[in-house]
Amino acid sequence: MTSPFDLAGKNAVVTGGAMGIGLGIAESFVEAGANVLIADVDEGAARTAAERLGQGSGKAAWMAADVTADGDGQRMVDECVAQFGSLDIFVNNAGIYPMVPALEMTPEIFDRVYRVNLRGLVFCSKAAASRMIEQGRGGRIINIGSIDSFHPSAVGLAAYDSSKGAVLMFTKNFALELAPHGILVNMIAPGGIETPGASKPLQESQMAADQMEAIRQQFVQQIPLGRFGAPRDIGNAAVFFASPASDYVTGSALVVDGGRLLR
What we know:
Elements lengths: L10 E5 L4 H12 L3 E6 L2 H11 L6 E5 L7 H13 L4 E4 L14 H29 L3 E6 L13 H21 L4 E8 L9 H5 L4 H13 L9 H12 L10 E4 L7
Parallel strand pairs: 1-2, 1-4, 2-3, 4-5, 5-6, 6-7
Helix pairs in contact: 1-8, 3-4, 4-5
Protein backbone atom coordinates (compact mmCIF):
# COMPACT_ATOMS: atom_id res chain seq x y z
CA MET A 1 0.00 0.00 0.00
CA THR A 2 1.15 3.53 -0.76
CA SER A 3 1.77 5.66 2.31
CA PRO A 4 -0.57 8.67 2.62
CA PHE A 5 2.56 10.69 3.35
CA ASP A 6 4.35 9.68 0.14
CA LEU A 7 5.60 12.64 -1.93
CA ALA A 8 7.24 10.65 -4.72
CA GLY A 9 6.95 12.46 -8.04
CA LYS A 10 6.07 15.81 -6.42
CA ASN A 11 8.14 18.93 -7.00
CA ALA A 12 8.48 21.64 -4.37
CA VAL A 13 9.99 25.06 -3.67
CA VAL A 14 11.02 26.05 -0.15
CA THR A 15 11.91 29.70 0.41
CA GLY A 16 14.56 30.35 3.04
CA GLY A 17 15.33 26.66 2.66
CA ALA A 18 19.08 26.73 3.29
CA MET A 19 18.96 26.60 7.09
CA GLY A 20 16.79 26.28 10.18
CA ILE A 21 13.11 25.47 9.70
CA GLY A 22 13.35 25.77 5.92
CA LEU A 23 16.13 23.21 5.79
CA GLY A 24 14.16 20.89 8.07
CA ILE A 25 11.21 21.11 5.67
CA ALA A 26 13.38 20.52 2.61
CA GLU A 27 15.01 17.53 4.28
CA SER A 28 11.66 15.98 5.21
CA PHE A 29 10.34 16.50 1.69
CA VAL A 30 13.36 14.82 0.07
CA GLU A 31 13.11 11.88 2.45
CA ALA A 32 9.41 11.54 1.53
CA GLY A 33 10.41 11.35 -2.14
CA ALA A 34 9.84 14.90 -3.38
CA ASN A 35 12.22 16.91 -5.52
CA VAL A 36 13.00 20.22 -3.81
CA LEU A 37 14.28 23.57 -5.03
CA ILE A 38 15.97 25.34 -2.13
CA ALA A 39 15.66 29.10 -2.64
CA ASP A 40 17.57 31.38 -0.29
CA VAL A 41 19.24 34.79 -0.20
CA ASP A 42 22.40 33.02 0.99
CA GLU A 43 23.65 31.47 -2.25
CA GLY A 44 26.47 29.50 -0.65
CA ALA A 45 24.25 28.01 2.04
CA ALA A 46 21.62 27.08 -0.54
CA ARG A 47 24.20 25.27 -2.66
CA THR A 48 25.61 23.41 0.35
CA ALA A 49 22.14 22.34 1.52
CA ALA A 50 21.15 21.08 -1.93
CA GLU A 51 24.36 19.11 -2.30
CA ARG A 52 23.75 17.41 1.05
CA LEU A 53 20.05 16.70 0.53
CA GLY A 54 20.54 15.45 -3.00
CA GLN A 55 21.50 12.08 -1.51
CA GLY A 56 17.92 11.30 -0.37
CA SER A 57 14.96 9.65 -2.09
CA GLY A 58 14.17 12.86 -3.94
CA LYS A 59 16.45 15.29 -5.71
CA ALA A 60 17.51 18.74 -4.52
CA ALA A 61 18.45 21.85 -6.49
CA TRP A 62 19.19 25.40 -5.38
CA MET A 63 18.99 29.01 -6.46
CA ALA A 64 19.68 32.43 -4.99
CA ALA A 65 16.43 34.35 -4.51
CA ASP A 66 15.04 37.20 -2.42
CA VAL A 67 11.33 37.14 -1.67
CA THR A 68 11.32 40.94 -1.37
CA ALA A 69 12.49 41.35 -4.98
CA ASP A 70 9.67 41.84 -7.46
CA GLY A 71 9.69 38.93 -9.86
CA ASP A 72 11.70 36.52 -7.72
CA GLY A 73 8.57 34.53 -6.87
CA GLN A 74 8.07 33.90 -10.57
CA ARG A 75 11.78 33.09 -10.98
CA MET A 76 11.50 30.41 -8.30
CA VAL A 77 8.46 28.89 -9.97
CA ASP A 78 10.15 28.91 -13.38
CA GLU A 79 13.34 27.36 -12.01
CA CYS A 80 11.41 24.55 -10.29
CA VAL A 81 9.63 23.77 -13.56
CA ALA A 82 12.92 23.92 -15.47
CA GLN A 83 14.66 21.61 -12.99
CA PHE A 84 11.90 19.09 -12.32
CA GLY A 85 9.12 19.60 -14.88
CA SER A 86 6.32 21.01 -12.71
CA LEU A 87 5.42 22.79 -9.48
CA ASP A 88 3.26 20.90 -6.99
CA ILE A 89 4.17 22.37 -3.59
CA PHE A 90 5.28 25.85 -2.59
CA VAL A 91 6.43 26.57 0.97
CA ASN A 92 6.63 30.21 2.09
CA ASN A 93 9.16 29.85 4.89
CA ALA A 94 11.41 32.92 4.53
CA GLY A 95 10.92 35.32 7.42
CA ILE A 96 12.67 37.77 9.75
CA TYR A 97 12.00 38.78 13.34
CA PRO A 98 14.05 41.72 14.60
CA MET A 99 13.31 42.52 18.23
CA VAL A 100 12.43 46.21 18.42
CA PRO A 101 9.84 47.66 20.83
CA ALA A 102 7.07 49.52 19.01
CA LEU A 103 8.06 52.76 20.73
CA GLU A 104 11.50 52.45 19.13
CA MET A 105 10.28 51.20 15.74
CA THR A 106 11.43 52.94 12.60
CA PRO A 107 9.47 52.90 9.34
CA GLU A 108 12.43 51.17 7.71
CA ILE A 109 12.38 48.23 10.15
CA PHE A 110 8.60 47.90 9.99
CA ASP A 111 8.57 47.97 6.18
CA ARG A 112 11.38 45.42 5.97
CA VAL A 113 9.50 42.97 8.20
CA TYR A 114 6.35 43.31 6.12
CA ARG A 115 8.19 43.04 2.80
CA VAL A 116 9.70 39.71 3.82
CA ASN A 117 7.02 38.17 6.04
CA LEU A 118 3.86 39.25 4.22
CA ARG A 119 4.38 40.99 0.88
CA GLY A 120 6.96 38.46 -0.29
CA LEU A 121 4.76 35.59 0.83
CA VAL A 122 1.70 36.99 -0.97
CA PHE A 123 3.39 37.47 -4.33
CA CYS A 124 5.30 34.20 -4.18
CA SER A 125 1.93 32.54 -3.50
CA LYS A 126 0.41 34.34 -6.46
CA ALA A 127 3.16 33.12 -8.79
CA ALA A 128 2.90 29.56 -7.46
CA ALA A 129 -0.90 29.46 -7.70
CA SER A 130 -0.90 30.80 -11.24
CA ARG A 131 1.42 27.98 -12.35
CA MET A 132 -0.63 25.36 -10.50
CA ILE A 133 -3.84 26.59 -12.15
CA GLU A 134 -2.13 26.45 -15.55
CA GLN A 135 -1.03 22.86 -14.88
CA GLY A 136 -4.62 21.95 -14.01
CA ARG A 137 -4.00 19.32 -11.33
CA GLY A 138 -4.19 21.25 -8.09
CA GLY A 139 -1.34 21.85 -5.69
CA ARG A 140 -0.30 22.82 -2.19
CA ILE A 141 0.79 26.15 -0.73
CA ILE A 142 2.14 25.98 2.82
CA ASN A 143 2.76 29.18 4.75
CA ILE A 144 4.93 29.32 7.85
CA GLY A 145 3.24 31.50 10.42
CA SER A 146 3.97 31.43 14.14
CA ILE A 147 2.34 30.94 17.51
CA ASP A 148 2.59 34.74 17.47
CA SER A 149 -0.10 34.65 14.77
CA PHE A 150 -2.40 33.96 17.74
CA HIS A 151 -0.71 35.34 20.85
CA PRO A 152 2.31 37.59 21.49
CA SER A 153 5.30 35.82 22.95
CA ALA A 154 7.58 38.74 23.82
CA VAL A 155 7.88 42.51 23.93
CA GLY A 156 9.78 43.76 20.89
CA LEU A 157 7.98 41.66 18.28
CA ALA A 158 5.11 44.00 17.42
CA ALA A 159 5.99 44.17 13.71
CA TYR A 160 6.69 40.45 13.51
CA ASP A 161 3.51 39.49 15.38
CA SER A 162 1.27 41.69 13.25
CA SER A 163 2.86 40.33 10.06
CA LYS A 164 2.31 36.74 11.18
CA GLY A 165 -1.27 37.50 12.18
CA ALA A 166 -1.74 38.77 8.63
CA VAL A 167 -0.23 35.54 7.25
CA LEU A 168 -2.98 33.61 9.02
CA MET A 169 -5.73 35.70 7.45
CA PHE A 170 -4.12 35.62 4.01
CA THR A 171 -3.88 31.83 4.26
CA LYS A 172 -7.59 31.54 4.97
CA ASN A 173 -8.67 33.96 2.26
CA PHE A 174 -6.38 32.51 -0.40
CA ALA A 175 -7.58 29.02 0.49
CA LEU A 176 -11.12 30.17 -0.22
CA GLU A 177 -10.07 31.70 -3.53
CA LEU A 178 -8.11 28.67 -4.73
CA ALA A 179 -10.43 25.89 -3.56
CA PRO A 180 -12.25 25.68 -6.94
CA HIS A 181 -8.87 24.92 -8.54
CA GLY A 182 -8.04 22.10 -6.13
CA ILE A 183 -5.18 24.07 -4.59
CA LEU A 184 -4.95 23.68 -0.81
CA VAL A 185 -3.52 26.52 1.26
CA ASN A 186 -2.57 25.91 4.89
CA MET A 187 -0.36 27.38 7.61
CA ILE A 188 2.03 25.87 10.14
CA ALA A 189 2.48 27.85 13.36
CA PRO A 190 5.79 26.91 15.00
CA GLY A 191 6.55 27.66 18.60
CA GLY A 192 10.11 27.82 19.91
CA ILE A 193 12.30 25.92 17.45
CA GLU A 194 16.01 25.31 18.10
CA THR A 195 17.82 26.67 15.05
CA PRO A 196 21.21 28.34 14.45
CA GLY A 197 19.48 31.70 13.95
CA ALA A 198 17.00 31.47 16.80
CA SER A 199 19.00 33.74 19.10
CA LYS A 200 19.96 36.24 16.38
CA PRO A 201 17.36 38.91 17.33
CA LEU A 202 18.61 38.84 20.93
CA GLN A 203 22.21 39.10 19.77
CA GLU A 204 21.37 42.03 17.50
CA SER A 205 19.77 43.79 20.47
CA GLN A 206 23.24 43.60 22.09
CA MET A 207 21.87 41.63 25.01
CA ALA A 208 24.46 39.96 27.24
CA ALA A 209 24.91 36.19 26.95
CA ASP A 210 23.57 35.53 30.46
CA GLN A 211 20.48 37.62 29.71
CA MET A 212 19.85 35.69 26.49
CA GLU A 213 20.20 32.38 28.33
CA ALA A 214 17.80 33.55 31.04
CA ILE A 215 15.18 34.44 28.41
CA ARG A 216 15.71 31.09 26.71
CA GLN A 217 15.25 29.15 29.95
CA GLN A 218 12.17 31.18 30.85
CA PHE A 219 10.62 30.30 27.47
CA VAL A 220 11.41 26.57 27.88
CA GLN A 221 9.74 26.55 31.28
CA GLN A 222 6.51 27.65 29.60
CA ILE A 223 6.52 24.70 27.16
CA PRO A 224 4.55 21.77 28.62
CA LEU A 225 6.69 19.22 26.73
CA GLY A 226 9.75 20.79 28.35
CA ARG A 227 11.90 21.37 25.29
CA PHE A 228 12.35 23.47 22.20
CA GLY A 229 11.21 21.92 18.95
CA ALA A 230 13.55 20.83 16.16
CA PRO A 231 13.33 21.82 12.48
CA ARG A 232 12.29 18.23 11.75
CA ASP A 233 9.14 18.76 13.85
CA ILE A 234 8.06 21.44 11.40
CA GLY A 235 9.27 19.37 8.44
CA ASN A 236 6.99 16.51 9.45
CA ALA A 237 4.02 18.86 9.68
CA ALA A 238 4.85 20.21 6.23
CA VAL A 239 4.90 16.68 4.80
CA PHE A 240 1.37 16.21 6.17
CA PHE A 241 0.11 19.36 4.41
CA ALA A 242 1.98 18.46 1.20
CA SER A 243 0.77 14.86 1.03
CA PRO A 244 -2.49 13.02 0.31
CA ALA A 245 -2.94 12.70 4.09
CA SER A 246 -4.35 16.26 4.09
CA ASP A 247 -6.50 16.03 0.95
CA TYR A 248 -9.55 17.40 2.78
CA VAL A 249 -7.76 20.17 4.70
CA THR A 250 -7.50 23.77 3.51
CA GLY A 251 -7.47 27.17 5.18
CA SER A 252 -6.24 25.57 8.40
CA ALA A 253 -3.45 26.37 10.83
CA LEU A 254 -1.51 23.60 12.56
CA VAL A 255 0.17 24.72 15.79
CA VAL A 256 3.44 22.89 16.46
CA ASP A 257 4.64 24.33 19.76
CA GLY A 258 5.01 21.58 22.36
CA GLY A 259 1.89 22.95 24.06
CA ARG A 260 3.24 26.49 24.55
CA LEU A 261 -0.09 28.16 23.77
CA LEU A 262 -1.79 26.10 26.47
CA ARG A 263 -0.26 28.38 29.08
